User: Fold this.
Amino acid sequence: MNLTHSTWLVLLFPYNLPPLRCMKKPYTFISLIIPGPKIPGNDIDVYLRPLIDELYELWENGVNTYDVSTNQNFQMNAAVIWTINDFPAYVNLSG
Assistant:
């Protein structure tokens, strides 16, 4: 297979929504677009570092967030539950 260009997306989905909503388009967040022309390979960590740092901050310290349904602020924390990727991405993410 001869590929002339490769673009990678990193998508985020909120899993604190009902199952029928969490994977819908309005709730899909494009966190990163890694442009080609080649795959990032082992250099993918350069692109992922800001996302990892922010997710770490959200896990450790959280962020004050407004809940419109209760009209109150609350401390929100975030975690990576899993990753879903094809085999080339799996190889690069696993080192």
